[in-house]
Write a structure and sequence with these properties.
Blueprint (H helix, E strand, L loop, with lengths): L6 E5 L4 H12 L3 E6 L2 H13 L4 E5 L5 H15 L4 E4 L14 H29 L3 E4 L10
Helix pairs in contact: 3-4
Amino acid sequence: MQVPGRVAMITGGGSGLGRACALRLAQEGANIVVADISADAGQQVVREVKALGRDALAIPTDTSKKAEVHRLVQEGVKRFGKIDILVNGAGITHRATIRDMEEEWWDRVVAVHLKSTFLCSQAVLDSMIKGGWGRIVNIISRAAFKGR
């Protein structure tokens, strides 16, 4: 998967699978926009990407908030001129039975997993259409197939 000259935006890019995707895409030639709720985690990935010879930008973002997603994409396009690849990797978990889960936690989990994917995908479309090329990858957890 060679992607030289492409720009990839990874949500949840500061750790776990998001971090792994950011580093792999950088190894394959992409510049990286790291979106993570943790500024420190995002900056660490930026340092790792730069050590691989690619450029990167970290923007602390709650991807369930439209205004923050808009700012994320604007900053990425301002820095790199485009977004070609979006990896929707942001996710959270809250272990509780359905009987014990509070409505606020339910709303938060749905917002981070579902609303975030919608908002980020919607926000990058103009850049992808303008560039005539784009890829959106949605990462899900195996927990989606087996309740806890």
